[in-house]
Amino acid sequence: MCNILFARELAKRLGTRSTICSSAIHPGDIVTEISKNMGKFLAFGHRYVIGPMLIKLEQGAWTQAYAAVHPDMEGVTGRLLWRVDETIPFEEKPFQRLEPDCQSRLWEICLDICSATEAEKAILP
């Protein structure tokens, strides 16, 4: 959620005139061996019930690569990328329910964690 809030705030601060785009990217639901030590029941459920809905490990970075280099993504900002061809505007559900100042509070917290100087904070007011 913080990734989404931060990307949304950065997109807002950069504005539409910037050539820099900011979107959040869902890491993907990937087949792994995470269920290997969960016990037989959970391992079975993970492999045979959930497994068919997951993407292969080799496909895991497709969305990130697509966002970084695909011509269709030029100028796209303020989105959540779910799978390669699915982008969700931050204005859509479930993001409508977020507190209006939540993303700006996160921005300020991140600046404090990074010990940003006043000059650095002024770059993207």
TrEMBL record:
The keyword Oxidoreductase applies. It comes from the Eukaryota. GO terms for molecular function: oxidoreductase activity. Keywords: Oxidoreductase. Belongs to the short-chain dehydrogenases/reductases (SDR) family. This is Uncharacterized protein. It comes from Rhodosorus marinus.
